[in-house]
TrEMBL record:
SUPFAM superfamilies: Macro domain-like (SSF52949). InterPro entries: Macro_dom, Macro_dom-like. Residues 1-180 form the Macro domain. Transmembrane segments: none annotated. It comes from Sulfurimonas diazotrophicus. It holds the Pfam family Macro. This is Macro domain-containing protein. It comes from the Bacteria.
Amino acid sequence: MAYHVTLRTGNLLNAPASDFIVNPSNTVLTLGSGVSGAFAAACGPALQNAMTRALRETGKLQKGDVVATGGCPRFGSVLHAAVMDYNPGATEALPRLGEITTILHNIQTALASFAALHDKNVTLALPLMGTGVGGLDKRRVLEIYRDFFRSAVDFECEVLLYAHSEGDYMLMQRIFGAERS
């Protein structure tokens, strides 16, 4: 079984209804700017309330952790990926490329559990993580995505990979190859 990646351009929150959508967030689960700000605008206070409850239940997060909540009606679950470290006393707020890989593994764990529980194919809407405020190189992040989604898994998953701009979409096409668009 495998991941099937479809490249898209536009607003991630206009993605077709999916089982999961990824919010590149932070360790204190506060909606902020960039993609996370778009989530705040699209989902309203219900999402932030769900994130606050999840943090209370989960406890302190580290970069690379992923927490699932509801709060965004068109999507089964929002996977909040702790890309930025806003914990008090954090010495390095910005992400590193290795943390993107950790996040992808944690997302995969959530997808596998869901697929096993529901005995169905899974859909995931995913933006470029860490490339806005986080400052990570888009090409390197896309190479990590490409290599990660080539791996075999025990479930079928349609990944809708979103580029915010036409330039990012063209870069995605070069990295993933024209046959993947």
